[in-house]
Amino acid sequence: MEGHVLGNLFAAALIGLALVAAWRVRRSAFWRERCAEIMRRRPIATVVVALYLGVALLDSVAWRDAQPGEASVEARSLLDRAFPTDFRERSYSAPLASVEFYGGEPLAHPRRHLLGTDILGRDVLHLALGGARVALLIGGLTSLIAIPLAILLGLAAGYFGGRIDDLVFFVLSTLASMPSILLLVALIMVLGRGPVQVCLALAVTSWVNFCRVVRGETLKLRELDYVSAARALGVSELRIVWRHVLPNLSHLVVITFVLTFSQLVLSEAILSWLGVGIDGSWGQMIDQARDELARDPIIAWNLVAASTALFALILAVNRVGDAVRDVLDPRTLREPT
Amino acid sequence: MSEALLEVEGLVTSFPGAGDVRLPVVDRVDVAVGRGEAVALVGESGCGKSMTALSIVGLVPKPGRIDAGSVRMAGRELRGLPVTALRRVRGAEIAMIFQEPATSLNPVQTVGAQVVEAITLHESIARGEARRRALALFEQVGIPDPSARFGAYPHQLSGGLKQRVMIAIALAARPDLLIADEPTTALDVTIQAQILELLRGLARETGTAILLITHDLGVVNEIADRVAVMYAGRIVEEGTRVEVLGAPRHPYTQGLLRSMPARVAPGERLAEIPGVVPAPDAWPSGCRFADRCALVMDLCRAREPERTVFGANAAARCHAVAAEAAR
């Protein structure tokens, strides 16, 4: 299957999931209240995160224009279509400039490049916006792999203990004892350099911490009265895990998802800087900017655009994450008395 | 006693102590509950009464284990049953209510869903039918406005209501025996009375037998047909409520009753039993109550007293009582 079709399916699945989630939230008074509370506490950050999501989705829906005889034309996303078809220059140009940065040749699109162009003459705003999809893909897909794995193994280890616990803990401590960046680079070398491969590698290194948290919480939960009560009622162990332990971990899942997300996006930037990142990511833009900073006069817009986009996303996600934790943790949420 | 429902004989449950020693926290305990009967197992904290209850349903927490004895339910031996068979007994034949209603309900599920789960666990019936049964149970245990409470989460209910929900869950599969482990300890006095009243009424209505585990003699007086008094892992006295509470034979039971505030004129100093219950690793070799007993003799420290039987089903385990009876 072609890349853009897969992307479209993914986007459709994501929209579907979001709709289901929204429907569930609307139905449950608890979640409706909590969401309103998050919005009330962090209005700007929530909107910013939503904007990033929107841009990433626009960039995920792509199709190829039917042009008979021109089979090799690349598929263009909704985001690409927001820019003119041939929105390129020959090389660097400063933001809103009308001539090239070096040499002073007139531009093809004078005063139209809001954030200038890069060494290949690509519009920096377009690149920066395109980075959102990569960043969210990394955060989202990796979490989607790492979190279920961590929950499964953490639950099994914490609830059943004994041999399973020994085994899981052995794997955990082995992974934790390796410098994660080395492990990451090694895994990517082995798996290859595609986005899915990078996400897999990141998942392998990032499930460890969460698994440990799940295991600890399960150890606590399995001793609680309602678990004993369920056992005394004749509920089977698997059903107890599914109905009485797992749901009580959900606040942890939500919180960890939000907090690891930003961690993962940053990790990708580091990987790109080491030359093993994903094409089109902010990390790669920053990596390219290394040489640009050494030029005279320096070219900063590429670096500034990518860093700002990265910084704003991380900050917003962390702010929302804080609010999510505060709102879901009964110890920090003051009861209205 | 009517036809026997639960018969526990010679039950020994132990936990590992220092070194290789195993400390029997429940030591050669015999308890019997007849159909429709309410039996109270009374004792101080740490005397092994809750562990007796958990041993009956085979849920002794690790590293504890049952070393000896038999637990028969309606004539069928429960010890040694495979886990799946035991699971069918739990809830369906023997249900349990715990002390703390606040923590015995899953906080993230509606109480209705939890009652429905208890119903569908042992019976395959349609969801709608289960829901109707659950609502009927809510009504039966005296929850006002059942359909409104059905979708409530535990934190939205008061302690008394939560305990009523627990009782509804316990009764969901129509068990023959209900083990209530300190069902009223965590509740206000007024609510305690209501819950006891409810338990007594339900037992009469449905013919469910009750094994009540408690340290509260007031509660025993409210509800029990027969009483067994436990001290340091052993049953020291048993008999009907009237016998045990009216004319206690064992010095420990006498001491307990004397220390009840209701039995002492206001302003007067309460009688007390000197000392504390010895820990399982410090039990004396003779009578375990010897160090705290006013009637202690040399014999008490040398040899553990035998069970002295009085009449149909009363008994006490005390040298002084035995000597009195022999005279």
Briefly summarize what is shown.
The complex is a heterodimer of chains A (337) and B (327). Chain A has 337 residues and is mostly helical.
Taken as a percent bin, the fraction of beta residues of chain A is: under 5%
| Order of strands, widest sheet of chain A | 1-2
Low-confidence stretches of chain A: none
User: How many helical stretches of chain A?
Assistant: 13
Give the total of beta strands of chain B: 12
Count of helical regions of chain B: 13
Give the strand order of the largest sheet of chain B, numbering strands 1, 2, ... along the chain.
6-7-8-3-9-10-12-11
Distance between the termini of chain A: 57 Å
What kind of assembly state do the chains in view correspond to? heterodimer
Q: Largest interface: which pair?
A: A-B, 18 and 28 residues
How is this fold's topology laid out?
The complex is a heterodimer of chains A (337) and B (327).
Chain A: H1 3-27, H2 29-41, H3 43-60, E1 62-63, E2 76-77, H4 78-81, H5 124-160, H6 162-176, H7 180-191, H8 195-221, H9 225-232, H10 237-245, H11 250-273, H12 282-292, H13 301-328
Chain B: E1 4-16, E2 22-34, E3 38-42, H1 49-56, E4 65-73, E5 76-77, H2 83-89, E6 94-97, H3 101-104, H4 111-122, H5 127-140, H6 146-150, H7 159-171, E7 177-181, H8 189-206, E8 209-214, H9 217-223, E9 226-231, E10 234-240, H10 241-246, H11 251-258, H12 298-302, E11 308-310, E12 314-316, H13 319-326
Parallel strand pairs in B: 3-8, 3-9, 6-7, 7-8
Antiparallel strand pairs in B: 1-2, 1-4, 4-5, 9-10, 10-12, 11-12
